[in-house]
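Report of the visiting student (M.T.), summer placement. My assignment was to run the structure pipeline on a short list of targets and document each run. The first record concerns YggT family protein.
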Amino acid sequence: MYMLARIINTLFTILNYFIIARVIISWVRPNPSDQRWRKLIRLVYDITEPILGPIRQLLPTGSLGVDFSPLIALFALSVVRRFVIRLLIY
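After the run finished, the structure tokens were exported:
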């Protein structure tokens, strides 16, 4: 069970990195017409959108237009990670 817990922990860590990469992509705004960037951007968006999309629909952006869904997703993933790992280890 310990090995399974390590694998799940690693998967959650990789998912966190993809969410952080999406935030950085939104700040930098690379050229989407460049083939190299297009593939990377598409991969990051395909992996993170199933998590961020529903959170974004629940949250009002308000007049600021700031998207807090990545922050909430990172927090929620942290809670789920701890819960799942505790179930596996104990």
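The chain has a mean pLDDT of 90. The chain has one domain: 2-89. I thank the supervising group for their guidance throughout the placement.
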